[in-house]
Amino acid sequence: MFLRKLATSAIVALAFVGINAVAEPVVDQPAPAFSAKTADGKTLDLASLKGKTVVLEWTNNECPFVVKHYDKSSNIPGLQKEFTGKGIVWLQVISSAEGKQGYVDGAGAIKVNKDRNATPTNTLLDPQGTLAKLYGAQTSPHFFIINDKGTLVYKGGIDSIPSSKAEDIPKATNYVREALNAIADGKKVPNASTKPYGCSIKFAS
Amino acid sequence: MALRRLLAGFTLLLISGICFAISDRASTEQVSARLVASVDSVAPGSKIYVGVNQRIIPHWHTYWSNPGDSGLPTKIQWKLPEGASASDILWPIPGRISLGTITNYGYSDEVTLLSKINIPANAKVGEQFTAHASVEWLVCNEECIPQEVELELNLPIEATARQSSEGNSLIQKSLGQLPVASPWSVQVDSLTNGFNLQLGLSESQVKQIKDIWFYPADWGVIVQNIDQPYQQTSKGVVINLQAGESKLEPQQNLKGVVVITEQTDTGLVATGFNIDVAPKPAQINNAAEISFLSALLLALAGGLILNLMPCVFPVLSLKALSLVAHAHQSPLQIRLQGWVYTAGVLVSFALLAAVLVILKAGGAQIGWGFQFQSPIFVLAMAYLMFLVGLNLSGVFVIGGSIAGVGSSLADRGGYSGSFFTGVLATIVATPCTAPFMAAALGYALAQPAVKLFAIFLSLGFGLALPYLLLANWPRLQRWLPKPGLWMERTKQVLAFPMYAAAVWLVWVLAQQSGANSVVIALGGMVALAFAVWLYDTTRNTRTTTERIGTTSALAILLVTLALGYSGLNEANATEKSGATPQADQNWEPYSAERLKTLLAEGKPVFLNFTAAWCISCLVNEQVALSNQTVKDAFGSAGITYLKGDWTKRDGEITAVLNQFGRSGVPLYVFYPAGKNANPVELPQVLTPDIVLNSITNTPVN
C-alpha cells in the first residue's frame, strides 16, 4: 500500500516540476499575470478581469507614431470609444522611465488623455518597465489582446502600414479592430501576430 | 523635445519651399541629405546611378529596408521626366543598433542609398534632365523624428555622358557596400525552433571572421534582439538563428543578407552576401541528429542497460527471484505476470512522456533528469528508496499474509503487484542516464509528441525486456537457482544499495536546499521507519489494534510528507547560494559571459555541465577530471575549466545543452586555443586518457 501510494505520488510530483517556467508571451497561450498601478492611484490585477476581453496598449504621448494615431487622426481614441462601449477593457500602459520621453505621472496621464479625447478604461503606470519586459513590448504603440479566458489572442501593431503619416491610416488594415471584431464574433483572430511599429519603449538607462 | 525638433524640421521644409529653388541638398537638425549622380551629364538611352547621401550626426541613425524591432525604412519617391524610370532603393549593408530589448538595422554616420535611373532614348540633347526625389526617413537616437525633404538634381543631356568626379566617389563607395551573391555554398537547415545557416567558407576564411550577422529581409522571421552564435564545422561556418514571431510558410525562402566582418591587412572589412534559400529539414551530421529508427533502437538499448543501474537492479532481481518463488504458478500465469509488469513500465513511461509533452507545450526549458531539479521530488525519491530498503531488510512486509517465504514488495502474488513493480522500476530508473540514452532522449525531446512517445515507450520496453523474456521463456527460468534461504539473504543484502541511494539523494537535496533540508529528510526517515514498524508490529494482532496501528502509521506517513513538503518550501525560500570556492579548486563556475570573454581572447576552455543528481557526472569528475595528471595537463596548457551546475533549473545551461543537441547532463566540451576554433565534444563516459587525448590531440591553432 505505502509503496503503491508513494509510487503514484512520485509520478504526480513529476507534473509539478517546471510549472514556474517563464517564457515570452505566445499567442494562444495564457497571458502573463500581472498587477500594476493605475493612473487613478489604484492597483489593478489582470486576474480580476477574467471574463472580459482586455486590450493592452503601450503608449507614449510624445512619440510621433502615437501622435499620428491620437492627435493627428483620433484613430486610437476612436477605437477606445467604440470598443469600451462594447464592454471591452482597454488599458493603456506607459513604460517610459522617469526623465524619458513620454513619462507622465498619474495626474499627467489623465490630463494628456483628456486633451486628446482619449477614453481608455484605465492607464497603467509602469515606469520601471516591468510590464513591458514581461510582455516583450517593444514599441509605442504595441498592442496585446487577451480574451475572456485569459489567453493572449493578438500581439502586434495597430495597423498594416508602418509609417508616421496620418494619411496612411485609411489605406491600412486596422489589425486591432479586426482582432476585436473577430473575438466578438467568436472567430479566430486572422492576423494574430503582426509587426509592431513605432518608437522604442523608453526604458531607464 | 521631440515636438521642438519636429517643428524645426517643418520650419526647414517651409523655408526650402519658400525659396522655391529646390536644390540637391537639404538638412534637418540630425541629417544632411544630398542627391548625387554618377555623372555630370546624361546621354539619351543610358543608365545612371543616383544616390541619396545622408550624413547623420553622432548617436543618431536611419534605417535599412528591414528596420528591425522598431523604426521605419527610408523611402524615396521619384519624379522624373516622361519615359524615365528609377529602380527600388539598392541598400548598402546595414549595421545593427541595440537599445535595451530592441535591435534595429540601420545606418550611422553616413550612407548613400542608390537607385538606378533609365534615361529615355528620346531625351533631347541640350535640354535638362531633372530628377526630383521626395525623401522620407525616420531618424532616431533614443527618440525618433520622422523627417521629409525634397531634393532635385539638374543634369544637362549630352550626346556622351561625362563622369562625375565627386558624386561618383560617393556612389562607387556605396556600390562597394551592396550585398553580392554568395561565392560559397549556402544551406539553410530548419530546426524545430529556428534555422542553421551554413556557409561553405574555407577554414582559413573562417579564422579571419571578426563578426558575422544575418540581417533578415523581413520582420519576424528570426528573433532580432538575441545573439546569433556561430561555429566552425567541417563544412564551413554555421550560424544559429532563432525563429521569430512570424514563421516562414512551407514554400517560403529564408531571405536576407549575411554580413561578414573580416580582419584584413588594411583593417576590418565588412562584406554582405545575399541569402535567398529554401530551408531544408535538418541534416544528420552529428551524434545528436540521428534518425528516428536509430533513436528507437538506441532507446531500446538504453532501456536494457537501465536494468543494470544500481538502484534498479535490486528491484528487478527481486522480481526475477519471485519467478523462482512462483514456480508453483502455471506457465500462463507467469507469462501474464511478465506482460503486466511490462504494462506497468510502459504506462509509467507514457505518463512521463505526457508530462514532458505538456511542459514542452508550455514553453518550459526542460531536459532529461529535469525532475531531479525539484527538491520535493528528490525528497520523495529519498523516502521511496529508504522505504524499499526497509522492506528488503524485512522491517515490514506488505500485504495481508505472512505465509510463505517473505511476501515482500517484489513477489506479491497479484498482478497489481507486478504492475506496480513496473511503475517502481521506472521511477527508480530515471536518475540513471545510461550512455546510450542521452542521444536518443536528446533527439526525442526535439521531436513532435508522437515520436517522443514512441521513443519513450521504446526505452520502457527495453527496461521491461529482460524480465519479460524470463517470464515468457521457461528455458531461461531453468537457469535460475532453486529457492531457499539464500533468497532471503540476497534480499537483505540488496537493501544496502537502496540505503546508499537514499544517502546520495539526501546529499543532492543538501546541494539544492541547504543544510536544513538534511534535517527535514533524515527526521522524515526516522518517522517513516517508525511508521512502518508500527504498521508491521500491529499488523497481525487483534483487529482493533491492527486498525489503530495501520491508521496511525498512515497518519505519521502523511504528516511526514506534509512536513517535508512545507519544510522544503521554507528551506528553499531562505536558502542562499552556498558555493564557496575552495583553495585547491581548479575550476570556475560557468557563466555565458565568462565563456564568451575567454573564447574571444582565444583561450582554451574545458566546459563541464554537471548536476549533483547525475551519477555518471560525479563518477566522471572523480575518475577523470579530478585525476592529478589531468589537472596538471589543464594547468600546463593554460586551460580554463568552467563548471556549470544543472542541479537546479538553469535556462542558460539548458540553452547550451540544446545547442549541442543534448537534453541533459553530462556534457563535456573542449574549446581549443585560438579564436573560432572548433569545439570538441567528449563522450559521456570519461577516463583520464580520453580527456588527455582530446586536449592534446586537438590541433591547436
Task: Characterise the protein shown here.
The complex is a heterodimer of chains A (205) and B (701). Chain A has 205 residues and is an alpha+beta fold. Chain A has one domain (24-200): 3-Layer(aba) Sandwich (Glutaredoxin). Helices cover 28% and strands 18% of the residues of chain A. Chain A has 6 helices and 9 strands, in the order αβββααβαβαβββαβ. Chain A has helices spanning 2-16, 64-69, 75-84, 106-115, 130-135, 175-184; strands at 35-38, 43-45, 54-58, 89-94, 122-125, 139-140, 142-146, 152-156, 199-200. Chain A has a 7-stranded mixed sheet with strand order 2-1-5-4-3-7-8. The longest helix of chain A is centred in the N-terminal third of the chain and has 15 residues, at 2-16. Helix content of chain B is 43%, strand content 23%. Chain B contains 19 helices and 25 strands. In chain B, a hairpin with a 2-residue loop joins strand 7 and strand 8 (102-108). At the A-B interface, helix 1 and strand 9 of A face helix 1, strand 11, helix 6, helix 7 and helix 8 of B.
Descriptors:
heterodimer; A: 205 residues; alpha+beta; Glutaredoxin; two-stranded antiparallel sheet; 6 helices; 9 strands; globular; disordered N terminus; B: 701 residues; Immunoglobulin-like; five-stranded antiparallel beta sheet; 19 helices; elongated
